[in-house]
Design brief:
The structure is a single chain. This protein is α+β, with helices and mostly antiparallel strands and 490 residues long. 31% of the residues lie in helices and 25% in strands. Strand 6, helix 2 and strand 7 form a beta-alpha-beta unit. Helix 2 packs parallel to helix 3, helix 4 packs across helix 5 and helix 8 packs parallel to helix 10. The N and C termini lie far apart (61 Å).
């Protein structure tokens, strides 16, 4: 009996010690669990009035600021790797200006430049950050270019200062009603003339509802990809979406505006109930592969007449609504692997053919002949061809990939055709994958080799500058970079 009495006295002490040790080990394990940190910030990059808006065929000075322009910044840190993504309200920013911003960010933060993704949204109602050529590198910067680079750098550093424990998730949802391929086969040769004295096989932006319309020359991508970032308690920090639609437009002449990209940022903030919070929520819409896509249904003639800014608000509302609905069901992660890889790809520059040069020499000789039939863009392309003669034979373009968990992101410094984006989505080892165009530079349009054979505005020399199989080389290089990141998992 004495033995059992002693056992009863000892047992509770043993259990207590065991429980204490178990809790101690569990606490230490929890402390060692990696935590994702995230921060976001915006920098105002609105230019002064009088700067040139370059969204149309001829630049015009900015007269009014309809809505402010921003560089919207996200920083992710998983304890091993930091990634930075910045989207700027601009039609296209040269590599040299982004490099200036990256140099400043790296100097102050030591984040590798290969881990900094910076892109333009492609609003057509922002003033220019470009120099005189898309293929000649800048050596001297304008005041606005220097201002823009410093504001991007400031935004990244402020986002870094906002880092806090976070969770992240991603998803996709379709919004097909606003994407239409703008390149069409038509049955009227008068619609197919080009500035080089020849005929194309397809026409960009043909007359709406025209009886000559046959069929679109390429696909569209209705998918909206998005990344949602929250604090560990669920407060929205940032949301980055990606939609393969060109700018919408509908602004008053001389207005500066972020187009539907700016309205999306506003609407997604409202839908998430993230107004007036501290730190401020940052909503971002990046431009996907939309070099051949806009929101015009060319099969319809007439239709609703929109007021200024009305259509872009309608598009932004649709995209924000779809993202908000899909965001309710995604899975969030408290930590994910992060990675980035970058490369410079040499590409040959296209040069004018003897036929092109002879055509423009003939035009020059016939200047003043009122009876001569001419293409309405001849003078513009004559000037562009003259500038191309001064360009080098080859350039190197920056390419970049990122991975966030199982998600892949491609960065291409061109206005990229939807076909290329769809191919990358299908072939990427990271699923899902999306592409941000006009990233880390702005080198013009990037048709596929098949689309080059069809001609049309996007393929004209002076709109496109690089070798005709450039999209193939770019896809292969991006997939090699993805393979490098994937290998890190093994």
């Amino acid at each position: 009996m004495d033995m059992f009495s002693n056992l009863y006295r000892i047992l509770p002490i043993t259990i207590c010690i065991t429980l204490a040790l178990t809790l101690c080990v569990k606490t230490q394990a929890e402390e060692k669990q990696p935590v994702l940190l995230a921060g976001a910030a915006t920098s105002n990059i609105t230019p002064p009035l009088g700067e040139l808006i370059v969204g149309g065929w001829k630049p015009i000075p900015a007269k009014r600021i309809h809505d402010e322009l921003h560089a919207r910044c996200i920083v992710l840190d998983n304890g091993k790797v930091k990634l930075v993504i910045v989207l700027c309200d601009n039609v296209g920013i040269p590599e040299s200006v982004f490099d200036l911003a990256k140099e400043q960010v790296h100097k102050h933060t030591s984040i590798p430049k290969s881990h900094l993704l910076m892109a333009s949204t492609h609003t057509h109602s922002a003033t220019t950050a470009r120099g005189p050529s898309k293929v000649l590198r800048e050596t001297e910067f304008t005041e606005y270019q220097k201002f823009l680079a410093s504001r991007i750098s400031d935004g990244v550093r402020r986002a870094l200062y906002q880092l806090e424990p976070a969770r992240i998730g991603w998803g996709q949802v379709d919004e097909p009603s606003e994407v239409f391929n703008r390149r069409w086969y038509v049955n009227d040769t008068s619609l197919l003339t080009n500035p080089f004295g020849g005929l194309d096989r397809v026409r960009m932006n043909p007359p709406r509802g025209n009886k000559a319309l046959d069929r679109p020359a390429g696909p569209t991508d209705p998918q909206v990809s998005f990344i949602s970032i929250q604090s560990q308690k669920g407060r929205p920090i940032a949301l980055l979406a990606n939609y393969s639609l060109h700018y919408v437009g509908g602004v008053q002449s001389g207005d500066v505006s972020a187009d539907y990209f700016g309205y999306f940022a506003k609407y997604i903030e409202q839908k998430l109930g993230a107004q007036d919070q501290s730190p401020p929520f940052v909503g971002i819409l990046s431009n996907g592969t939309s070099g051949d896509v806009n929101n015009i249904n060319f099969t319809q003639k007439g239709g609703k007449r929109y007021q200024r800014y009305e259509k872009m608000q309608e598009v932004a509302e649709k995209v924000a609504s779809r993202v908000y609905e899909a965001q309710q069901t995604i899975k969030y992660h408290n930590w994910v692997p992060l990675g980035a890889a970058a490369a410079k790809l040499p590409l040959k520059l296209r040069k004018p053919t003897p036929e092109m040069l002879a055509h423009f020499e003939k035009i020059k000789a016939e200047t003043g002949d009122a009876n001569r039939s001419k293409h309405r863009r001849e003078e513009i392309y004559a000037d562009r061809i003259a500038k191309i003669m001064e360009a080098p034979d080859q350039i190197e373009v920056p390419l970049q990939v990122m991975r966030i968990g199982s998600l892949g992101i491609c960065a291409i410094p061109f206005e990229t055709f939807t076909e290329t984006g769809l191919e990358l989505k299908e072939r990427s080892p990271f699923q899902p994958t999306f592409t941000i165009e006009l990233a880390n530079g702005s080198f013009g349009y990037l048709p596929t080799p098949e689309q080059h054979r069809l001609g049309g505005y996007e393929t004209w020399l002076g709109t496109n500058y690089v070798q005709k199989d450039a999209s193939t080389k770019i896809v292969n290089t991006l997939l090699e970079l993805f393979a490098r990141l994937k290998k890190e998992d093994s």
